[in-house]
Amino acid sequence: TFHSFSKRCYRTSGSEVVRQGIFTMFSTCGIRAPAPSPSPTPSPPVGPGGRWAVIAAGSQGFFNYRHQADACHAYQIVRKSGIPAQNIILMMQDDVANSRENPLKGQLFNKPGDNVTDVYRGCNVDYSGKIVTAKLFLSVITGDTSGVPTNGKVLKSGPNDRVFINFVDHGGVGIVAFPNGPLLHAKDLSTALKTMQKKNMFKELLFYMEACESGSMFPGLTANGRIFAVTASNAKESSWGYYCPSNDTVNGKHMGTCLGDLFSISWMEDSDLAKMSMESIAEQVKRVTKRTFKSHVSTFGDVSFESEPIGNFELAQATKVASPLPDSNAGAVDIRDVPLHLAYAAWERAETKQQKQMAWNRLQTVVAARAADEQLFQKIVNRSCDRAGFGCDYGMIHGKHTIRDFECHRELAATLHESCPRRAHHDAGGWNAFNMKFSQTLVNLCESRTSLQKDLQDLEGIIRAACNDASKSAAGILVV
Fold first, then answer.
1. Are the C-beta atoms of 247 and 319 separated by less than 8 Å?
2. Nearest Cα to 89, choosing from 147, 44, 42, 43?
3. Beta strands 27-28 and 333-334, pairing class
4. Which of the residues 212, 244, 385, 392 is marked catalytic?
5. Which pLDDT score is estimated for 449?
């Protein structure tokens, strides 16, 4: 017992109840408890704020400028929030900023104008070049260190953390592209997200996806799975490029490409307005949906946390106030038509006779490549419908079956990627920005196998044969 009046301690055989009063004001009594056991060494913290971000751009080549500009802009937003660099993982080909085609070499801009921000400055790319694949992306988000280079970064988030994932690229029903290797299929993405759930890698996960038909990429999300996904389009339509020629002038120079994607610049420019601490996820989605009127922004999964501030994921502190969001959608181009639009704009802007001729040749090559892809898929359909009735061909090309047989579609999409000719040097395989719209045709074939009297092996054989035929004449229509 310690007596504060005499400042001495005395052993006692019993304990006293601590009371406040004239007779107890000088003493605090009780039996000393055993010394507490040493506390276990705490686990190392996951990082300030318990927030993580993974950003991926899935294309390469200067004509895809907008994807890497989107990705670096997203990086700037999450970095300014206070998320440490070690908690942000960015992957992209990183071949655009220093491309010989870039009028402002070493820089990337996500919007036109004078004195606009160079989003490439300070954009820390963790994975670049040939290692940027769908497999790498899945390894990163599931925390699988065996699937990345030695000492490569992976998501190390825990059950109390919030995770933000942003993917930007080309897509089709059930697929999105990567700059190298096979496509990422909806089935594999769904499996990866379930793995993250089983490993308790997040408290809440917010996923923004920019791609055509991106509304088809989240079939497995549930109402209580703690994952909320927002996509640039529904499962049946294209997304749109933005700030395209002639609305592509930066610091007095025509960039000759689209600077952003409509959905992506909508959410990022909204984030730049410095309302992050007040605006909820639902409010941002509402604002972005209004601006992205060229396609139908769609949401999937668990909406239980959509009332939380968007700053819990993207930004926790205000940045400098940006200009209000514009109402104009000038410079918006359907993603399927971006290569054609850029080639035509280059021809229009060409000044010398030689430049005109080169631009004209490129434009004709783009037109020929589109026609060749249309013929390829028509041939696949014709051969698949050889035992079916009248109208089969039209139905397979123009129908909009919902994807249910994911395994069949995944196999056919992989076969086409591996077997068909590349239409441009920046294509990773047989798929490209234009022909990914025909991923819907493969869905239609898979969902109609009974009426077509074809099994999976039959359809794979038909695709390989059609691709082989197309490859014989592809050399002359390779877009450079």
1. no
2. 147
3. unpaired
4. 212
5. 96
pTM: 0.86
Residue (of 166, 164, 129) closest to 149 by Cα position: 129
Nearest to 297 by CA among 311, 306, 286: 286
The C-alpha atoms of residue 385 and residue 453 are separated, in whole angstroms, by 9
**How many beta carbons lie within 10 A of that of residue 185, not counting itself?**
21
Distance in angstroms (rounded) separating the CA atoms of residues 165 and 116: 26
Q: Is 170 a catalytic residue?
A: yes
DSSP category for residue 109: B
pLDDT digits 0-9 by tens, 75-110: 999 998 888 999 999 999 999 999 999 999 999 999
Dihedral in degrees, nearest 10, Cα atoms 454, 457, 458, 463: 120
Q: Is residue 310 very low, low, confident or very high in pLDDT (cuts 50, 70, 90)?
A: confident
Residue positions counted in the chain: 480
> Measuring CA to CA, how many Å separate 248 from each of 63, 112, 342, 349?
13, 5, 11, 13
* Helix 439-447 with 406-419: angle, nearest 10 deg: 130
- Is 212 designated active site? yes
Cα gap 287→356, rounded to integer Å = 42
Residue of higher predicted confidence among 341 and 22: 341
Q: Angle 439-447/353-384 helices, nearest 10 degrees?
A: 0
Six-digit token string for 146: 């065996």
CA dihedral angle for residue 129, residue 130, residue 131, residue 133, rounded to 10 degrees:
110
Per the CB < 8 A criterion, the answer to whether 57 and 69 are in contact is no
Question: Dihedrals φ, ψ of 415, to 5°?
Answer: -65, -45
- Residue 220's φ and ψ, nearest 5 degrees, are -100, 5
- Both structure tokens of 151: 């000492």
Catalytic residue, candidates 67, 73, 170, 417: 170
Q: How far is CA 269 from CA 69, 101, 202, 259, in A?
A: 13, 26, 26, 13
pLDDT given for residue 425 in this prediction: 85
Buried/exposed code over 394-416 (b: 16+ C-beta within 10 A; e: otherwise):
ebbbeeebebebbebbbbbbbbb
Is residue 447 a contact partner of residue 406, using CB atoms and an 8 Å limit? no
Number of neighbouring beta carbons within 10 Å of residue 449? 16
Measured from the Cβ of residue 352, the count of other Cβ atoms closer than 10 Å reads 8
Give the pair of three-digit tokens for residue 53. 């971000």
